[in-house]
Specification:
Shape: rod-shaped
Largest sheet: none
Radius of gyration: 25 Å
Oligomer: single chain
Strand content: under 5%
Low-confidence stretches: none
Helix content: over 70%
Number of strands: 0
Mean pLDDT: 83
Structural class: mainly alpha
Amino acid sequence: MLEEKSQELELHGSLWDHRNAMEDVLNQLGKVQVLLEHLGDQYGWNEKPDLRAAIAWMNRSPGESLAEGRDLLGEHSCDWFTGYGDIMTFLDIVGDYVCDSERCIRDVIAGNIKRSV
C-alpha cells in the first residue's frame, strides 16, 4: 500500500514536471510570436527595399517631396537598411527561443526533465 502511494506520488510529480516543461515551451513560443509580429510590423512592406529610393529619401532637402509613391518607398527602404542590425538581432533572439523550446521538447520525450522545486 505504501509502495503504491509512493509510485502514485512519483507519477504525479513526473506529470507536474512535464506540464511545467510544456508551459515553458508555450512561453518561449509566445515570445517568438511577439518578436516576429514586431518584425512584420516594423519591416514588412508590399515592396522590397530599394537602395536608390533609400538614398534619395535620405538626401532630400527638408520639406522636399519626391515623386508620387517614392517618399514612402524611400522611407521604408531607409528604415529597412538602417534597421538591418535590429532585424538580425531579433532573428538571433527568435532562433534562441526556438532552440530552447526544441531542447525542452526533446527532454520531455526522452524523459530528462529536471524536478522543479
